[in-house]
Amino acid sequence: MEKVLVTGGAGFIGSNFVHLLRRERPEWHVVVLDKLTYAGRPENLAAVANDAQYRFVQGDICDAAAVADAMQGCTLVFNFAAESHVDRSLMGDPAHAGAFVQTDVYGVYVLLEEAKRQNVKKFVQVSTDEVYGDVSQGHSVETDPLEPRSPYSASKAGGELIARSYFVSHDMPVVITRGSNTFGPYQYPEKLLPLFVSNALDDQDLPLYGDGLQRRDWLFVEDHGRGILAAGERGRAGEAYNIGGGNEKTNREVTEFLLQVLGKPASLIKPVGDRPGHDRRYALNCEKAKSNLDWQPLRTFEEAMTATVEWYRDHQDWWRAIKGGEEYQQYYQRNYGTRDKG
Ligand code: NAD
Ligand code: DAU
User: What's the domain range around 160?
Assistant: First the structure.
């Protein structure tokens, strides 16, 4: 029986992971530590809130006292907590990029220190395929150099390196996962999929950056969560594992697919000015996770994407509460209000 700390568990992938654990490891105790930033939504965890084997702690992973309280007695740690949105990391004022460095680098260090003190069995640092940088050809393998190009991906790479240093220097059982573009329920509507679906439902423009031919590997959130769980249970200390869906698509293809599911016209697509330093392509080779973790994605792109689009169509209260809020509207105006035409 494990007692598990899930940091960032009120966010998109973290909350789906908590639900996965309750379904697939019902005997485990789960503690969530989450600061509840704009992206942390307690309602994502409403279904487990009264569960006897579940505890929620509101706190910051940069706060050693909060971390010590939440991690007390935990055997496994899964660190999802992060500033996660590339566009926010690119916004002009230092408060934005600074929050990425603080949480995604310093916060990882605070967690590692406490995990060392608690002698945890495994520390999983949830990272991203963006640490490889722009991959114009072929597929990234885990031994490739890290060449991050945005403040977000650079911070995530910093978090990985700190985590790896605790394996090398202190023999800590650290495992890193590098996941690709994830989609599913409860994703904050700043990311492409929930933003475009919710805009389309209201017949609003879909702001497609640049030529829309940037390529991403799309991964269903439950398949991502199963990969992270497999890394926690079977990953080898000191190793990194790529977790991708094997669904390479251009942003335009994904956009056209969701419009087709919703029965909305392609004329809603509005090309706008590109993201600065926009990586054209990410692509992962996931053979290592398949052979060493006994993991593979189970859902097809078409089936999982259709189900996800339908989830947003059927859960409008969830995203309307966010989109109607002041924080979201200020962000939207700031990110899109002055964007040049594509
Ligand atoms: P998200 O933004 O939806 O959720 C992040 C969560 O972390 C929120 O609940 C937020 O309140 C919490 N948080 C932020 N700062 C915190 C702090 N200082 N202390 C405690 N909690 C804090 O993010 P997501 O999309 O669910 O991503 C989760 C993790 O997965 C991140 O580490 C991200 O880098 C990684 N990842 C995401 C994707 C993707 O496509 N979304 C792909 C690969 C990897
Ligand atoms: O690859 C993994 C990464 O995927 C994670 O590490 C990040 O946390 C996660 O946010 C995601 O990053 P992206 O920047 O790829 O996701 P986003 O949904 O913001 O954008 C997906 C693509 O769509 C990207 O090429 C930018 C483009 N885009 C995005 C938005 C929000 C648009 O064209 N228009 C938009 O309005």
Answer: 3-186+220-248+278-301
Token reading at 276: 């600065």
Q: The tokens of 120 are what?
A: 């945890």
pLDDT digits over 221-251, tens only?
A: 999 999 999 999 999 999 999 999 999 999 9
* DSSP state string for 120-162: -SEEEEEEEGGGG----SS-B-TTSPP---SHHHHHHHHHHHH
Within its chain, how far is the Cα of 141 from the centroid?
Answer: 20
| Domain of residue 236, CATH code | 3.40.50.720
For residue 96, pLDDT over 90 is answered with no
Strand partners for 56: 32
Q: How confident is the model over 263-287, as pLDDT tens digits?
A: 999 999 999 999 999 999 999 999 9
- Residue 200 in any domain: the answer is no
Mutate to test the pocket of ligand 1, among 84, 86, 188, 254 (most ligand atoms within 8 A of CB): 84
- Ligand 2 binding site (Cβ under 6 Å of any ligand atom): 84-86, 128-130, 180-181, 191-192, 195, 207-209, 214, 216, 251, 275, 282
